[in-house]
Amino acid sequence: MANNQESILAPVSGQVKRLEDVPDPTFSQKMMGDGLAIEPSEGKVVAPLNGEVVQVFPTKHAVGIQGDSGVEVLIHIGLDTVNMNGEGFEAKVGQGDYVKAGDSLISFDLDRVRKQAKGVITPVIITNGDALDALEKTDDGEVEAGKSTLLQTKMKTEAEGDTPVASSGEYGDEAKAIVRALGGEENISVATHCVTRLRFALNSNDEVDKSKLESLDIVKGSFLANGQFHVVIGQGTVDKVYAAIVNETGIGEATKADVKAATGEKQNPLQRGIKVLADIFIPILPAIVTAGLLMGINNILANPGIFYDEQSFIDVHQEWAGIANMINIIANTAFTFLPALIGWSAVKRFGGNELLGVVLGLIMVHPDLLNAWSYGDALEEGTIPTWNLFGWEIDKIGYQGQVLPVLFASWLLAKIEMFLKKRVIDSLQLLIVAPIALLVTGFLTFIIIGPVTFAIGNWITDGLVALFDQYAVLGGLVYGAVYAPLVITGMHHTFLAVDLQLIGSTGTTFLWPILALSNIAQGSAALAIMLATKDEKLKGLSGTSGLSAYLGITEPAMFGVNLQYKFPFIAAVIGSTVAGGFITMQHVQASSVGVGGVPGILSIVPGGWLAFGIGMAIVIVLPFAITYFMALRKLNK
């Protein structure tokens, strides 16, 4: 008879996290079961216990093992890694294999997962928690794969028969019930599944009867994310339920890409445009934020009036001047070569070769071109260099810090490349496709795309500056009020491009400081819930998510706590509205895009530190006070 106690070792090395801190409701709300998560430090997954491999998902991003005691363990590598379609993963075992603790299960490219997936954090879940008598979790902060104990389980000892193996038609009734709760077959455009959940592209999310859906015993939870409706079923069962849906209804099989494409088709042109911008700017955001933080450090060292009257730190302490200059070069690189970063991400998003996008961006900031930041002075002096193309004068200027020119040029480059690839034989593609694509795009960029979009970008910049100069308080109030709702819709990504355009054209942005305060406000509301509630689970979730928001990551606080109860979200919006109006009235500006939270003060032009500090006090105190007193009445009845 199998031992009913089991020690589950860490399947990966890294830092231990609570499930509540995983930014995916399937895991944070424990729809699949209880356990822990690990932020991996290397791309190796080993067996956490002796047992049988009951499932290796086709995309190799997840594996399930049933231990000798009967405990069932799911290891899910990263978040939304199913969309990588197995690229970067290598399975060392197959379904039905017997493994011993420490045996290699999967290897994966950690850097690739970081870049392409939603996150690398790896949940380790006990999926048959109802069969457990006890579950103990480690208190260690770091664990080593195959050596450190992560979980201790004890199975129930009462005599129970083995669960019968499901027949192919066993889940027919459940499948039909799920389809009915989703609004019927006519409401389902496309359906697929991953290792734990069904994924649907629905014609109308309003047709879903969520209470009816979640009342089904087989359904562990449901939620809407990225336009897809997720129904959490569980490892080892979800594929059978999906097969039953296909067999029992008129819904055909589909891939993850089919569902993604179907949800994209439902979006209106504005939503699709916003998604394109998000897809382009989110991958380069780490470089931009890092540069912003470093520029903040340089500002502290190089700007006068911070440590000494009318002198900077390096004026007084000359030995620090070299260090400050090195920091400035490191920080400025991302903004100096911003077109190269955008070109890489944009051409990749539009379906072309991303390396050609890098080259295109570098062409646009070539040192032989007039620096874009010197354009204004050169225009006044009449010294703008030109090319003479058969009597046609073309301005020979670069596009440092500009956003629109490289976006449009990248789209054109990708389209030309794809057009040529379809028509040029493979043996000649290296000689023809890239040279022609770059040459045509380069000419059109300098002749048409660059000058036109450069002018449009300046018009946008001048319009915003004039608007906030004339109606500073109103502009701050409005942006402070709408930023958090924009996050819900995803439209906030659009303003990253606007911030970068403002910085590229004027050297500063007045919008980004309001963003930072809005994030802090959401964190303050979540922390108020932590202090007011008596629910230990909510207390833990709101505490960690509140601190996360103070450091610039608002989604856990906003979606996990504040929107769930509504009044904390409203309190946060009130706080950011008041603070936004105040700091714009005081003309607070940021010299770079940094960490959108408490560390954001490093990105603020030093002359605005005091006003920004008062703004921070407003978004800490006001949302906290409103939320706390309302929570005392609403949460603990």
TrEMBL record:
Keywords, alphabetical: Cell membrane, Kinase, Membrane, Phosphotransferase system, Sugar transport, Transferase, Transmembrane, Transmembrane helix, Transport
InterPro entries recorded: Dup_hybrid_motif, Glu_permease_IIB, PTrfase_EIIB_Cys, PTS_EIIA_1_perm, PTS_EIIC, PTS_EIIC_1, PTS_IIB_1, PTS_IIBC_treh
Compartment(s) where it occurs, according to its Swiss-Prot or TrEMBL record: Cell membrane
UniProt EC number: 2.7.1.201
Limits of the PTS EIIB type-1 domain: 172-255
Ranges for domain PTS EIIA type-1: 24-128
GO cellular component: plasma membrane
Keyword Transmembrane helix attached: yes
Domain PTS EIIC type-1 intervals: 275-637
Regions that span the bilayer: 276-300, 320-343, 428-456, 476-498, 510-532, 609-631
Transport listed as a keyword: yes
Broadest EC class assigned to this enzyme: transferase
Gene Ontology BP, a term: phosphoenolpyruvate-dependent sugar phosphotransferase system
Membrane topology: Multi-pass membrane protein
Gene Ontology molecular function terms on file: kinase activity; protein-N(PI)-phosphohistidine-sugar phosphotransferase activity; protein-phosphocysteine-trehalose phosphotransferase system transporter activity; trehalose transmembrane transporter activity
Signal peptide residue numbers: none
Active site (record annotation): 194
PROSITE patterns xref list: PTS_EIIA_TYPE_1, PTS_EIIA_TYPE_1_HIS, PTS_EIIB_TYPE_1, PTS_EIIC_TYPE_1
Pfam families associated with the record: PTS_EIIA_1, PTS_EIIB, PTS_EIIC
Listed PANTHER family: PHOSPHOTRANSFERASE SYSTEM TRANSPORT PROTEIN (PTHR30175), PTS SYSTEM TREHALOSE-SPECIFIC EIIBC COMPONENT (PTHR30175:SF4)
Name of the featured protein: PTS trehalose transporter subunit IIBC
Organism for this UniProt entry: Lentibacillus cibarius
